[in-house]
Amino acid sequence: MHVEKNVCDNIIGTLLDIQGKTKDGVNARLDMVEMGIREQLAPQSH
C-alpha cells in the first residue's frame, strides 16, 4: 500500500508541477547535460 501511495504522489506531483514534490531540478538537468543525454532539457539562461 505504501508503494502505491508513493507512486501516486510522485506522478501527481510531477503532472501538477507541485513545488518540492519533484526531483527534477536544476542540478538534475545539469547532470544530464554533463552525461550527454537529453541536452534539449538543459537549463537556459535568459
Detailed description of the structure:
This protein is mainly alpha-helical and 46 residues long. It contains two helices and no strands. Helix content is 52%, strand content 0%. It is elongated and about 40 Å long.
Secondary structure blueprint with pairings:
Blueprint: H1 2-15, H2 26-35
Major beta sheet summary:
none
Name the shape in a single word.
elongated
Radius of gyration: 13 Å
**Range of strand content:** under 5%
Question: Which features would summarize this protein structure in a list?
Answer:
mainly alpha
Short note summarizing the structure:
This protein has 46 residues and is mostly helical.
